[in-house]
Design a protein that fits this description.
This protein has about 230 residues and is α/β, with parallel strands linked by helices. It has one domain: Spore Coat Polysaccharide Biosynthesis Protein SpsA, Chain A, CATH 3.90.550.10. Helix content is about 30%, strand content about 25%. It has six helices and eleven strands. The strands form three sheets. The chain has a seven-stranded mixed beta sheet, with helices on both faces. A two-stranded antiparallel sheet has the order 2-3. A hairpin with an 8-residue loop joins strand 8 and strand 9. Helix 1 packs across helix 3 and helix 2 crosses helix 4. The chain is globular. The relative contact order is 0.18. Cytidine-5'-monophosphate binds next to strand 1 and helix 2. The site of cytidine-5'-monophosphate has 18 residues, from strand 1 and helix 2.
Length: about 230
């Protein structure tokens, strides 16, 4: 079966406050997008890539794509619509595995990618990389006053990649779209169908580059991993 990689990269990255979308900011002389694609290619050189880019994107350079087989699709209003566009544009078999990975996570390692792939292949509900919550969790009422302490037992951070059979993932996201639900990851859409994706404990340094402070951190992580 073919492995399909879907990389949503159509976001504006507003929280970064930079003059271009964060995936085009440079870490150690390479744009974040190029780092992310290089990591994915190192783990899965034969995979097929579907890259979601904003239709008005002025920064993308196709020489950053190391895959032999790849296609570009337009982004949608939210991340889930970008991923749906990819699923609807590609010519996958229902039983093919699809792995969705945010472009904003360039520090993903080969070991985590391979562990997730194994789990997704053997678990019918699919799988996601995740990390047990380490901090004590507080809830406010929108007033920045600590009202409730949520028990952290059994709480995980959902990371990417997340991987599912093509038929399951497409059905799940189309269902979410039809009910007007905006999901922020694939696993939530799959859970809504009554499936329980496998949580695969991933590395803590699989950082999502979001705020300006994250740039130096991601650069240091990349340098340390390749040392
Ligand atoms: O902004 P945030 O980091 O949460 O976005 C997660 C991922 O989804 C990023 O890789 C971003 O480029 C992508 N995205 C997208 N289409 C959108 C919004 C976000 O592909 N409409």
């Amino acid at each position: 079966n073919t492995l399909w990689l879907v990389v949503p990269a159509a976001g504006q990255g507003r929280r970064m406050g930079a003059d271009k979308p964060k995936q085009y900011l440079t870490l150690n002389n390479q744009p974040i997008l190029a780092h992310t694609l290089a990591r994915l290619h190192a783990a899965f050189p034969q995979a097929r890539l579907v890259l979601c880019l904003d239709s008005d994107d002025r920064w993308f350079d196709p020489t950053w794509v190391p895959f032999a087989q790849w296609q570009r699709v337009s982004g949608g209003a939210e991340r889930m619509h970008s991923v749906l566009n990819a699923l609807q544009a590609m010519t996958a078999e229902g039983s093919d595995l699809v792995m969705v990975h945010d472009v904003a996570r360039p520090c993903i390692t080969r070991d985590d990618l391979h562990a997730l792939y194994q789990a997704a292949q053997t678990h019918s509900g699919g799988a996601l990389l995740a990390m047990p919550v380490a901090d004590t969790m507080k809830r406010d009422n929108g007033d920045q006053l600590s009202q409730i302490t949520e028990p952290r037992d059994g709480l995980w951070h959902a990371l990417t990649p997340q991987s599912f059979r093509y038929s399951l993932l497409r059905h799940a996201l189309e269902q979410a779209q039809q009910t007007g639900t905006v999901v922020t990851d694939e696993a939530s859409a799959v859970e809504a169908l009554g499936e329980a994706p496998r949580l695969v404990s991933g590395r803590r340094d699989n950082l999502k580059v979001t705020h300006p402070d994250d740039l130096a951190l991601a650069a240091a992580i990349l340098a340390a991993q390749s040392a």
